[in-house]
Amino acid sequence: xxxxxxxxxxxxxxxxxxxxxxxxxxxxxxxxxxxxxxxxxxxxxxxxxxxxxxxxxxxxxxxxxxxxxxxxxxxxxxxxxxxxxxxxxxxxxxxxxxxxxxxxxxxxxxxxxxxxxxxxxxxxxxxxxxxxxxxxxxxxxxxxxxxxxxxxxxxxxxxxxxxxxxxxxxxxxxxxxxxxxxxxxxxxxxxxxxxxxxxxxxxxxxxxxxxxxxxxxxxxxxxxxxxxxxxxxxxxxxxxxxxxxxxxxxxxxxxxxxxxxxxxxxxxxxxxxxxxxxxxxxxxxxxxxxxxxxxxxxxxxxxxxxxxxxxxxxxxxxxxxxxxxxxxxxxxxxxxxxxxxxxxxxxxxxxxxxxxxxx
Length: 359
Prior knowledge:
The protein is built from 13 helices and 7 strands. The chain is globular and about 75 Å long. It has helices spanning 13-26, 42-51, 70-78, 92-95, 111-123, 149-154, 160-166, 180-198, 208-216, 222-240, 311-329, 334-340, 345-354, and strands at residues 32-35, 60-64, 100-104, 125-127, 134-136, 140-145, 169-172. The strands form 2 sheets. Strands 2-3-6-1-7 form a 5-stranded parallel beta sheet. It has a two-stranded antiparallel ribbon with strand order 4-5. It is α/β, with parallel strands linked by helices.
């Protein structure tokens, strides 16, 4: 029997709507494709789909397709047959018989394996590497991706027929910035959990300023980024005062720390990152791909006027251009934009106010 998944935490309408669709989709013996940015909790939803399904007493297996080479992933999924006396191996599909297999980062699967995967998804049949006899299994397949797979099909990077088989039901998970009502409950949950792990008697919550700061961020790393920040700051507060008597964001540990690299002695890489490749994922042996841009709208920053003649006007225009580029490369994350310009977070916010971008 698969281990019970943690209960999802969320009260926003966007998240509750997804949970309703998960409940409806779970009872079907069909593939489900989970789409969402990294850190949105796709594995948690996959486990919930399994646990609410008729297969809930059977095994649930996760495979991160991006963690393997093509040959190694073939062996991991389908096993390998040897002719030199070595014992044959059984892959994850074999072990997941009558249960569920969750294939994360399905977009990382090579075209060769996509062809092989189609048979396993459509007919429950496959061949182990080095073997010519087919294996038959009864496995429900759940997949996930952090990219837009129809666009990958249009670029020739993903098979249209495989996508059609995987997309019987498609659930698009909302990013954390679309779940504002869930930020503080999630932060409180992560804080209580690590406080208990550290041995603290209770979790004091956050100061009003800290809560406001958490709500103000756009969270490009989503729930995973929120968890990391809350855990790190709670641990710092506990190290400063093991009683955790002060709310997080006050007391000896001081205000919330969002960037663990922030230091007056921080090493700086002066080389600029080209804007066009800011979101590019490098793959060994793969041609460069156009970087996928985020699907949500960034604030509009007007282009500086090239006809300005005054020295101060040109300086202001150049500053504004630097702000524009830093914000776009950092996906509207002010802390990362400040780091990119070699400024502290407060210096950058002052610069934003100077240009009328922040009240």
